[in-house]
Inverse folding.
């Protein structure tokens, strides 16, 4: 427990810029005393930070903070730390760009390659969305199932893994921006239904365009909620 807390505190401090790129972290002894943890805890957490790309451990020299371009942004923990900083809006903009580069093509391929089973899973997911009655957990589970089925239906295992990773990274933002308003949910479900219908009818270009609309709509909701309750 102490290790997890220390890892979160030091990781968040790095992502917030309290330790700039190229800077050396304090020694193990100093960090252990500062955070009231053992040196073993510090050492283990530092190795975790290295695995996430945040730092480089140099034997006999110390631990140094990496440039942000070296960080593993596909690590959910790193992204969550970044979303707690004043760069939150910028990170969401970058994530939206990544989604626009990947997801529409996945949907387009799904419209060309989806099997009867793929379509069955997608339709079942939409049905679950409809009966969620504004329950975040039920709706979120169904939404993940829907997008996962589309990613599998694209027929490209590399794109599937990329799409699944991006979807996982999007989850904290989705949960925060979830709106249980019946009208809003109805519009969201209707858009998912349109995407499904386009895939089912093999209208690949239409499906791709609708996927882009869905991503832009999610970003719009994020901006509106941020304006209503800024950090």
């Amino acid at each position: 427990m102490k290790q997890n807390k220390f890892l979160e505190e030091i990781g968040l401090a790095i992502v917030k810029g309290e330790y700039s790129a190229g800077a050396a972290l304090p020694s193990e002894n100093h960090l252990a005393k500062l955070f009231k943890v053992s040196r073993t805890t510090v050492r283990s957490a530092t190795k975790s930070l290295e695995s996430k790309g945040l730092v480089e451990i140099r034997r006999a020299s110390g631990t140094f903070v990496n440039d942000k371009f070296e960080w593993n942004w596909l690590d959910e923990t790193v992204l969550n730390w970044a979303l707690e900083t004043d760069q939150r809006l910028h990170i969401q903009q970058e994530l939206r760009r990544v989604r626009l580069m990947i997801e529409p093509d996945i949907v387009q391929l799904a419209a060309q390659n989806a099997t009867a089973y793929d379509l069955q899973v997608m339709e079942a997911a939409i049905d679950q969305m409809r009966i969620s009655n504004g329950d975040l957990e039920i709706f979120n589970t169904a939404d993940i199932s829907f997008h996962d089925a589309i990613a599998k239906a694209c027929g490209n295992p590399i794109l599937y893994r990329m799409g699944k990773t991006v979807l996982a990274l999007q989850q904290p933002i989705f949960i925060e921006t979830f709106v249980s308003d019946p009208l809003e949910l109805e519009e969201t479900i209707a858009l998912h239904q349109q995407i499904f219908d386009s895939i089912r009818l093999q209208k690949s270009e239409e499906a791709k365009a609708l996927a882009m609309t869905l991503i832009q709509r999610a970003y719009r909701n994020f901006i509106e909620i941020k304006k209503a309750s800024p950090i």
